[in-house]
Queue: 2 jobs
Job 1
Amino acid sequence: MNRIGRRRRWVDTGWIMLAVFVIATLGRSEPSFEEKLGSIAVHGVVGDRAVGRNFAVTPGDVTAAHAYLVPSPRIGDAEPVQLRTSGIWLSVVVETEALVEPGYISAQLRDGDGRIFPAADGSQVKLPDINSNDRLHSAGLPERGMYFFEVPPEPGGLRLQVFWGALTPSMMDSLVDIDLGIDAARAQALLDKAEPALDLRP
Amino acid sequence: VNAGSGGPKGASEGSGWWRRNRGWLLGSAILAIPAFGWPLYGAWQQYNARFSTQPIDVPAGQWGQLEGARWRLLGIERTDVTRQAGLREDAVVLLVRYEVVLDEGTSPERIDICRGRLVDAQGRKWDANIPALSVTRGELPRNCASRWNPDTFKTEPVRTGEPFVFEHAYLIPSALPSAGLRPGIWFPPSADAKQPGMFLRFDPA
């Protein structure tokens, strides 16, 4: 009885050690917090329609400018307001569509270093008919417009990220991620073509 | 019975353990039902109250009861005023008319915050009276229990028991067929909701 009991204890110890080993191995290959709860990336291409959970986006041309001319917020003021920046303004033409329910579709730029630049809202670029960031989308009614970004003077490796809602990308929701293909040469070409003051008045 | 298997003694001890602890196992199983079920039920109720997911189906021409008032769908009109109003041309305006009668003791302020929601056969949703549609304002009020009086320059609440006709305007794609569209009335979540989570779903017939 004593001998059987001792052998039994060794067998149990073996099982426990095996269990600890399995738990440790599985724990190491466990998906990270980001992978479990972060945004779900949907990759898109410039010019093609990319479809997220409840919205679709077709990104188009990118344009750079050193300043924007927008209508004055004061009524009856014909003189435009100049929006200056120490970096540059980038605008991306987009067609956005809500597929299921009404809501807002927002965007941000992510550069090669992982820095995030959210699209300018109406408090910065007040163009309700052009700025897609402030537009209330209705299901099935695609909207043409632009997202405006204020970025440092030498942008590199920019990715356009489009998401549902008015704030930041939601956890466990789709984030349409589009490589804008802006390498050093393309960035220089954009900067060469950048207008000193791009007139956005309707 | 266990002869021939690796450890006859171990096997019989194993089944003995289940038998000996039968009472505890049964007790744990019974306790587990409310322990998991109660929070799930609470979360389910909160979700319903927040998004108004529980429909009260109202057959064509009938009255439906919601939040201390009875509601009736009078009709749906499809208009193409978008061009005159300067709205997008690939859309039409759908006007949904309702009649509401407040019960005794229901405050018009409470009913006035009602919202409209239109759902198509695929489950896509549209909100009533989006800001872009304010340019298409007709003669009927778009609030659920108050009307603007141009003589006194005041918004006057409806009186209890008095029938009140109002409309909800929707901007929908012109390609969307009218068949299968179901208009509804719901209320934003509130602590004094009488039927939290419920909404009226009308059958246009």
Job 2
Amino acid sequence: LSYILHILILICLYTILAQSLNLSSGLTGMVSLTHAGFYGIGAYTTAILSQQLHWPFWINLPIAMLICLALSWLISLISVRTIDEYFMICTVGVQAIIFAVMNNWMKLTKGPLGISDIPSISFFGVNTGNRLAFLILSMTFMLFVWWVLQNLFDSAFGKTLRAINEDEIYARSIGKNIYRSKFNAFTISAVIAAIPGALYAHYVSFIDPTSFTVEESIFVLSIVILGGMGNLMGSFLAAAFMVLLPEILRFIGMPSSVAANVRQIVYGLFIVLITMTGKNGLGDLIKIVDSDSVRFSSRR
Amino acid sequence: MYVQLLANTLVGTALYFTVAASFYLVFTSTKSFYLTHAAVISVGAYFTFLLTERLNLSLQLSVPLAILAALLLALFFELFIYRRMRAKKVLPLTYLLASLGLYIIVVNCISLYFGDDGKILKSGPVLVANKILGAYLTTVQIIMILTAVIVFVGLHILIHHTPFGTLIRAVSTNPTLCDIYGISSDRVISWCLIIGSALGAIGGILYGLNTNFIPRSGFDLLLYGIVAMIIGGVGGYRGLVFGSLLLSGAQQLTTFFIDKMWMDAVVYLILIVFLVWRPRGFSGLQLRKVEI
């Protein structure tokens, strides 16, 4: 049972990550590979604060989010000025810088050794050290984030973002502030990514930089592509699928060293299939979802 | 000491220039970032490793075979995936995502077969250090520099003094108009991919001969190439030299004065500075979504 709980917790964390990335990359079309960086900042901030200053989770989380806000504000100042592929290369660069800081700033982050013995979260005298309590906690966060994002997606702001994705020039011509919208989408998405990071650090109680590499960013991005750009439910299902995939592979008797590669090959194949056929997500590919618009095809 | 620093910079410049030039050929004809180029670079290095270490062929024989394998891979992707996507007129970003997926597939196949540990191409007598003007350079590093010079001259002749160069420039300016005039843009793109992939494979093999490599090395090398291309200005191949020089110089200076581990951070910092203030690098043009 403990094992199933572990899987469910991971699904919750990756759902939050993928859904937040969906706001900037899926809905707005700014494909970003910095997400694991923000995830890592969330994890490292709360880990350092709780271990060295013994601060509780409820103070650490807002601080982690604030740091992500400040950093993503800086990055979006830079990144929003560039477009499409240049934006993505730029985010790869930022991801590499964040990773370098985590890996090399020995005094603060202990470098490749990682930070161990991160205390579990306790509030109102309830310790969430056991997995069931932690699952409830992360599920609460997931549902809250989902609710917030769903409202954002349906709001006028979300519609603007969708318009920017589909035709930036046209959106600008009807008086939308593209710069500010992109900026907001990117920062909100980064701030939300700090939540699963903080949760993850307290959950596994040991973090090291290898969990927050560019590969992890690609993994989260592939969840978004699989689930469908701008589709929150899709992100949730794709996150569940991606977390379960290595377990399924192990279940059919594949050694774990091979399974890690096979999993990546599987999602690589899905990305190629989805993008090649110009469909929006796996649901659209196998005709479960009847999408009204084919996102990837050119409109003009 | 400073002479050695200069020599290292020169070697780095040569390597990045070769990779950047190979990617430039792909980019200038297709106008999209084909990340499969990273897979091509890795395949070049790993195929050489397979032939020399596992099948005990000589280096002289395995290098051309590895280059052939790499460009066949690129051609396969072009014919069966990119060309179909181009026929569908998908958004530019889609090529990037598709190539990311393809890259993931290829690299994981490599890592399944060869493992993730660092491999090195044993080059035998080529790895002897030669002292030139007080700096130590291995023969491989001298070959690297010579290759880069040959690539530069070759690229200049190809683009400016051959009919095919005119076609490349035509397709990179306006593919639709080319099709109207009866120039098959698909064919030009395929040829650019073939030449570019061959160069990319050469870059990968040289990298493998110089240092040890892992499946991901191709991606890192390609990123350096892209950074050099962006810094140098996407406009022309001459800028690639400046881009590679700046990149390699910054790396060596960081290694020398700060620490090797901050090398990547410095490189990407330079990239970001350029993307913000000079998105078109030294050429000074501005980047716009639509140019009217």
